[in-house]
Each structure stands twice: as structure tokens, then as C-alpha cells.
Amino acid sequence: MTQAAIEIDQLCKTYAGGKRALDGVSFDVPRGTIFGLLGPNGAGKSTLINILAGLVNKTGGRASIWGFDIDQHPRNAKASIGIVNQEIVFDPFFTPKETLEIQAGLYGIAKRDFDAIALLRAVHLEDKAEAYSRTLSGGMKRRLMVAKAMVHSPPIIVLDEPTAGVDVELRQQLWAYVKSLNARGVTVVLTTHYLEEAEELCDRIAIINHGQLIANKPTRELVGMAQEKVVEVTVDRDVVTPPENGCFQKIDVKAGRTLVITYRKDQANAGEVLGAVQGAGLGIVDVSTREADLEDVFLNLTRSTG
């Protein structure tokens, strides 16, 4: 059996009318990782996830889940993955407990072998077990969808924008649960627009734009691709005309005495930047820096392929 949790090989999808949502995408999701799948709206992320879920038919390439080809072994492939879609879909007249028990029945899990309350407890919904699902808040409904995806204990779970519209406290609870799942060996695939979450949580990140894969690297390596760095230098007098220097990529004056200087790490270092400020006859009172983050890399990559 393959060591990858998910294998995507030259995956293509062209919709009726000619829209090409996926154009030869290839990547592997290593087992036991939290894997980020990022991209702008319309990049092809949801199409890829729906192909894995069996909701959309691909037009080319191949995909396997936990070693099972989605065409040759569709039932085994679907049994190996739980998917939480962006859309919150539920029956408003069932309770959360009933919702999970019905889902378990669809997977052939005997009632005596399934503990709905334990699963609801894991997503902080135990006290809502007997309430009608329509009475749950948006965040609670989303957590119910996570529980529903985990009913059959799949080795892989895909979370498509799981924290959209969720408040900070509930988001933290959800990520704590995701981390606990991953600690137990579950492979997690995450799409999100909160790039700071992806940077904090994901071991590896792939970025899709216009249906094509434009990056697939360990998170630290991806963040390291950002070459721009910003240093704010507070000087000892008001600055009317900011100094110029070849090591500055950009310089602005903020609040009269603070110089906001952008430079490229591959062309200069902080010492050279500060030396240039002093060389212009300005005394340095305070210095702060901002390291590049995933957002910088994401914007640079998607702009260059736009």
C-alpha cells in the first residue's frame, strides 16, 4: 500500500461549456500530516475535494485515497475519507445524536458499536445531543458536520473552510480537536482563507491558482521564500525628505520620525539598512522588524500566476 494518504496525479476537470477547473494537478498528501490546500476563490480547490468525495467526475488523471484508486475501488476510497464541505447541510428535524446514528447506519456500523454521545462530546456538543439541529448556532452546526465526517473513523479527514463564520473561541475549540485527531494519527487536509491558521497548523502546504499547482512545500520552506522584509526605524528628528539608498526597495515616513523601510533579504541585511540610515546623518532611537509570513508568499505567487 502506498505511503501517501492521498495521491493526485495529473488530475483534470473541464466542465460543460469549456471551463477548465483543474489542469493537470499532481501532489501527494503524506500520511499523518496536517496538509494545507490553499488558493484564491475559484482556483479549483473545491472541485478537487468534490472529486475525492465522489461528487464530481474527473475528466483526466487519477487519484487514490489511502491506497485505493477512486475509480477502481470507490467504496474503499470513500470509506477512507471524511469530508466537511463549506456548505452546512443537515436535516433540521433530526437531533445531533440522531444525525450521527443515521450516518453510522449508512456506513453499516451497528448501533451497539457506535457511541454518538462520545463523538458529540469530542466536538463540544454533548449538551445539544437531543436538541433539534435547526436550533444550533452556525458554529455548532459546523462542528456537527465535523462529527458527521468522523462517524466511520476514517484515516483521512478533509476540512473545506471549516472556520468560515465561526467566532474566535469556537475556532480555537475546533482546531484543538483537529490537533487531537492528528495526534492520534488522522491525516488532515485543510483549506482555509485564514493564512495565519495554515501557517500555524500545517506541516506542508500546496497552493493552487487557475486550476494549476503553483507551490507544494513544507510550510517553513514556503514561508522562507518571502524575500521582502520590513524594518521600522525611529530616528532622533523629524524627517521631511526620506534618505535614499540602493539597499532600500521602498521607504516611507510615518508620524514624522519613523522610517518604514522595505528591503530584500537576498540583496541586503538589517545591518546595511541601519548603516544607511545613520550614514544619512540620522540618529537611531528605536528599531522594530516584521518578518515575512505565508500571506506575503501567497500573494506573490498568486499575483505572478494571475
From TrEMBL:
Pfam family, one: ABC_tran
Residue ranges occupied by any ABC transporter domain in the UniProt entry: 6-235
SUPFAM superfamilies for this protein: P-loop containing nucleoside triphosphate hydrolases
PANTHER family linked to this entry: ABC TRANSPORTER ATP-BINDING PROTEIN, ABC-TYPE MULTIDRUG TRANSPORT SYSTEM, ATPASE COMPONENT
InterPro entries in the cross-refs: AAA+_ATPase, ABC_transporter-like_ATP-bd, ABC_transporter-like_CS, ABC_transporter_ATP-binding, P-loop_NTPase
Alphabetized UniProt keyword annotations: ATP-binding, Nucleotide-binding, Transport
Protein name, entry field: ABC-2 type transport system ATP-binding protein
UniProt keyword annotation of Iron present: no
Single GO molecular function: ATP hydrolysis activity
